[in-house]
Amino acid sequence: MIVAKRLVRVTIILLIVLLSSYFLWLVRSGLYPFIIALFLAYLLNPAVAHVEQKGFKRIWAIIIIYSLVFGVLAFGGIKLVPLLIKELENFAREIPQITNIGQQFLENFQAQYQNSALPFSLRIAFDKALLSVETEVQAFTAAIVDGIINSISYFIGIIISPVLAFYLLHDWNEIKEKLLLFLPGKWRYEVITVVRDIDKVLNGLIRGQLLIALLVGILVSTGLYLLNVKFALLIGILAGILDIIPYFGAIIGATPAVTLALLDSPFLALKVIVLFLVIHQLEGTVIGPKILGESVGLHPLSVIFFVFVGGELGGLPGMLLGVPLAAIIKVVFRHLYKLLV
């Protein structure tokens, strides 16, 4: 009888989880402000808790952290947003010219090897490879433009997110307690342990990668500006965001800069390549493959595997989220193994 009751309870809980997950999937397009808010609250909660421990009430601790964070962002925005808007306008204006230069470059390169002594089959292979590269570059450019447009279309949700994050931070402890009440008493200790282990893993990973991405973005923008490469700020921001992807983000982020420099001169492209090599060598001394693997509790080969899997399943967002999700899954399975064995 007791076993039957437990089975019914577990079945009901699983049904609730499945139905809730299905409902969230159906309304996923409208959840982005809440997802951003949850992410902000998770990032800021340790700082709020630290200030709260100094004797401040929680609401004042939140106000202090908000004032510091958004004050810095506002100051930076006043300086950077006009420059970024100007670069976006110039980029949109010069896209046809850049495309024409790139087309001429490819045609000249094609004409040179077509007149060479290469075997016919090899020239055909080069033609197919060039066509593939051209298609990929066009798709990559279109994806960047679409991403910028989508970000603008989500502007209202992005503005609302800090307000939602404020309420989440204010009621953070109360929300945790209420969520625990939904769980059977025997599960609570194990769930708390799992959540703490996940938090320990994500804490270093997310905050560390965001800091590294910020530093890489600043270094790339500064270096490209000194080399007189066009759209230095835009490329630096893109390189910083893509740098969050382990191993491959550096290569993907360098591609636009090297391509633009190559359209100007091969020597400039070489200098840009050296710049990225130096920057990512410096980055590697701070958070290289081995350190990253240890911080998420995964072997470097596993990290590469999950980046590939994430990219295959979810494209660029999948590559960004692949390793954190893999680390979370590993923590959950480790605890399940302890319970079952």
Short description:
One of its GO terms (cellular component) is plasma membrane. This protein has helices at residues 2-26, 32-53, 58-114, 120-153, 155-170, 172-181, 185-226, 232-242, 249-264, 266-287, 289-295, 300-340.
Please give the structural blueprint.
Layout: H1 2-26, H2 32-53, H3 58-114, H4 120-153, H5 155-170, H6 172-181, H7 185-226, H8 232-242, H9 249-264, H10 266-287, H11 289-295, H12 300-340
Helix pairs in contact: 2-3, 2-5, 3-4, 7-8, 7-10, 7-12, 8-9, 9-10
GO biological process, one term: transmembrane transport
Keywords: Cell membrane, Membrane, Transmembrane, Transmembrane helix, Transport
Transmembrane segments: 7-25, 31-48, 60-85, 148-169, 210-227, 233-254, 261-282, 302-329
Descriptive overview:
The chain crosses the membrane at residues 7-25, 31-48, 60-85, 148-169, 210-227, 233-254, 261-282, 302-329. It is found in: Cell membrane. Belongs to the autoinducer-2 exporter (AI-2E) (TC 2.A.86) family. With 341 residues, the protein is mostly helical. The protein has 2 domains: 31-111 and 143-182, no CATH class; 185-341. The chain contains 12 helices and no strands. The longest helix is centred in the first third of the chain and has 57 residues, at 58-114. The protein is globular.
